[in-house]
Amino acid sequence: MELLFRIGKEGREVKQLHQLSLRLQTIAREVPKGSRLADIGTDHAQLPVALMGAGRLSYAVASDAKAGPFQTALRNVEAAGFSDSISVRHGEGLQTVGASDRIDSITIAGMGGSLITEMLSKGANKLEPVQRLILQPNVAADTVRKWLYDSGWTLVTEEIVQEEQFYEVLIAEKEAAEDHRHAYKYQNWEDAILFGPKLLEKKSEVFQLKWEQELAHLERVLQQMDASLQRTEIGEERERIKNRIKRIREVIK
């Protein structure tokens, strides 16, 4: 009977999470069981609803700055019957989170790296009780890595998935190691920030494909620059692209 109950619970968890996109499934897997989660920029509250339905959360705040997504999230949470355990809020970034929420995990996904770091910086006073950050920047993942490094967070793992486009998921913990810089210890600093120290260790097929495509794109841009009549005006940018191409070639060779 106990075994059947356990299988039933596991089956429910798998079913709930499989309803999510591959990107959100990857994020969901990194949320510790029993978490008190703040999902910032929750959009339709898909992630907290699925995690709560799978029995993975004890409490959640689902917030969004835009009125439309906020209203949709509110309806979705009510329809799922989780109004008592998921608090849907309208507001900017971490300002929607209060001390009484006792949040220990934060997810921020589906926006640019600069916006993510801006939210974290503005809400720095809300991060003290937080043990885990799960961040999925659509662009500028290197900006997020640098912020984590400078702010004393340890990158414990990274994932990369392909779903129409490429998505990198960065997981950081506050007290994962005595020296939070250990994630970059054995790698070139600039490469670790650009490519991701954990992704460099694995060099998965998806990682290789992403950077092969980026390399092809940059080579086309460089060719266009070389054909331009204003080459002297774009010299600095041209050198930056040449340097990026060189680094990518060295990593994916």
From TrEMBL:
<dbReference type="InterPro" id="IPR029063">
    <property type="entry name" value="SAM-dependent_MTases_sf"/>
</dbReference>
<protein>
    <submittedName>
        <fullName>tRNA (Adenine(22)-N(1))-methyltransferase TrmK</fullName>
    </submittedName>
</protein>
<dbReference type="GO" id="GO:0032259">
    <property type="term" value="P:methylation"/>
</dbReference>
<dbReference type="InterPro" id="IPR006901">
    <property type="entry name" value="TrmK"/>
</dbReference>
<dbReference type="Pfam" id="PF04816">
    <property type="entry name" value="TrmK"/>
</dbReference>
<keyword id="KW-0489">Methyltransferase</keyword>
<keyword id="KW-0808">Transferase</keyword>
<dbReference type="GO" id="GO:0160105">
    <property type="term" value="F:tRNA (adenine(22)-N1)-methyltransferase activity"/>
</dbReference>
